[in-house]
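This week, work through this protein record:
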Amino acid sequence: MTKYTPMMEQYLAVKETAKDAFLFFRLGDFYELFFDDAVRAAQELEITLTGRDGGQQERIPMCGVPYHAAENYIAKLVERGYKVAICEQVEDPATAKGVVRREIVKIVTPGTVMESRSLGEARNNYIACVAGTNGVYGLAACDLTTGELFVTVVEESAEVLIDELGVYSPSELVGRSALLEQLTGVEANGEETSEREPAAEAGAAYSLAKLVTRWEQSADADALSGQFPAAQLASLQPAQHEAVALLMGYLSETQKRALAHITAIQLYEHRQSMTLDPFTRRNLELVETVRERTKKGSLLWLLDRTVTSMGGRLLRRWVDKPLLSRAKIEERLEAVETLYNKLIDREELRQQLKEVYDLQRLVGRIAYGNANARDMLALRVSLEQVPALKASCLASGSSTLRALAESLDEVADLRDRIAAAIVDEPPVSVREGGFIREGYHSYLDQLKEASSNGKLWLAELEKRERELTGVKTLKIGFNKVFGYFLEASRASAGSLPADRYERKQTLANAERYVTPELKEKETLILEAEEKMVGLEYELFQELRQTASDELKRLQRLAEAIATIDALQSLAAVSAAYRYVKPELADSGALRVEEGRHPVVEAILKQGAFMANDTALSEEDGLVMLITGPNMAGKSTYMRQVATICIMAQIGCFVPAARARIPIIDRIFTRIGAADDLVGGQSTFMVEMMDIQAMTAKATPRSLVIIDELGRGTSTGEGMAIAQAVIEFLHDRIGCRTLVSTHFHELAHLEERLPSLRNYCMAVKESGQQVTFLRRLIRGAASTSYGIYCARIAGLPDPIIERAYSLLGEFESRGALRQARDEAAAGQAQPAGAPPLPPQAPDAAPAVQLSLFGGEPAAPPPNKLSKREAAAAAAADKLYAQLRSADLINMTPMQAMNLLYELQRQTQER
């Protein structure tokens, strides 16, 4: 078989080192892709697939993109979860002997993107690494664009590790094969490779990252000691150290350069913040909506009035990680309260922050060597705002803002040097000069003067030659091939002295000439310009290195400014919607007066939202059982309670007239359901797995929210499970719980569960019209108005009429069933009733198995006589009718009719 060409042999050798990436192989002005890479890239990028002779009889598939437009194509592949390896020519083709040497200079992955056009300005782009075994896991999460590195340890379980990963929503997940297989279900093969869109862990209907990369090679001890302070490394537990070493080894291999801006390990305890599993984040729509998967309509969308990108990213992190430390929450609330009450000071801060650029990502570009003159100008402008920002915080009267102001480093030495070096409107490229200010470097000024004088001499020469020859169209031109020349039209060329000019080039309509004097000046001018451009670039590299030496100072400054921005954002939103400062407590009652859902209220017209109270305590009851119709606002109310708790624990004022919030350690939600088709799980199974997580992980300090508990199975079984779950949460855990259900029969639980209270959504009936009042009231609902909701949804009238007819039949059957049960207890069958189906003579009485273990409870023996049993049954029936009557929403006539009916039944007895 014929061998491949030398160039293709080189390609294959390079490709062998990047098997899991698209290889962009530089050939002249194009990046080319070959073989399977070409076929897949042509499909993904929608570019033409061609072929070329590579030395084999069959043509090799090939496609390519221009090098100057490659960034856009690379971004498309990375956004879809792929890796891209950039292979460049690393020697001059003009001097190379044989095939030009090429090497991979960088591997771009979803977690290592640096170009801002591929990133959201107000959100971090994390790459996460996991390590450890036997229930002790290390987690390291890094944003390469900002240099932030967060590290923690999880000692509970893999499920808790997944919950913590959900905080970061990493674009890429890195780790050893065995652990990644455990977390994602990706089959490990021991190779360093990647999997896109990993399978979800059993019971988790979400993907951990766009890209999962198996990686086995850790950074060595010398590399880590050169990257981080020794004290920080010494404080790491073994699992944390392994995670950091794996991550830094992966970043070093893919980036092929020093990562100077990753300077510190931010070690934290994951129990310091409220635990929110991915389902809870999604159900409460904290940072994005469920349906659109966009920020608009989420809690973050409402709270984000930050001015800087870094402030926006920090606020997002606050929403993702509500605090558990009362002292830290109080610090934020103190600053928010100060700015809330000082509109002028708040607006002054906002104006100052508007001139601050994204310092964190500027620092990243400086460390990477990607920063240009405009980036340095942005850094200077940002640093110029620090003195005024510092003064405003010191004068605010807030102790929290004062502490932040005292930490603000003006970095005045760097600011002044940039101001002296860079002009106010620099060009984009630093390779063509024109951005160093006059007076910054004496020799550069001399070169500029020589260049300027040379061009002035050229202008004078052109004027002199026109006067000498009388040719008014004579002009001096320049190109890179011939340099400077005199150009005259063909018609006037005969008027030029033959012995004065040397013909250089003949064009269709013009002649070009040179003179010895012009060539001499050309050499001086071009030499000055070449030296000037080269010197400017050298001076800029020195300036960029000076800025790089101050990375730590700049990063600390950026973090402080981001905190100020996030605090003013919370204050601005709180003032705009007239929220109130929550009263915090380590434990005890959760009470909210006239609470509102912040996002729904913001979207609705002013005053359209119906406020409701919440009371969860030992005295008021820790469990709220909420019944009522669909569309009445049960789900919104329950989300509202959870959202208010989260807002309080991130340090924000809350939408209420008054609020007392105990510190909540974690929130569980079961709101909405959907089949997990990939995992082969039904809606009901997904719901039960969520309930299992709640019962296993909830503590007395938790908040549990379950919407429509028990749906998805038969009425009897659903009701049994719902009651068992409520009893378990009430008796064994004792956490604050909100449960909504359509099983009105569960209302009896209030009689025997001392900490449970019945609530319902008020409804107003007028004839066949029903109005949902959105008001939460004490008591249980009598019906769900499901058919009425179907009518609102637009179902045809025949369906609605048939449904009402069937409902009447079902209720009649229920009455007959009750009569049969009474007869079984010793009563005679009602006169005129149809015969009841016989029961098996030897049938054992039905028992309900406990959902959470234990022996089944047998029904109590009947010790009453037949007459006593009949009287008791009649009384129970009357009592049930009276108790279920919705007196608040009845008209006077309806109330009288009810009273008459109850009286009639007692007379018949």
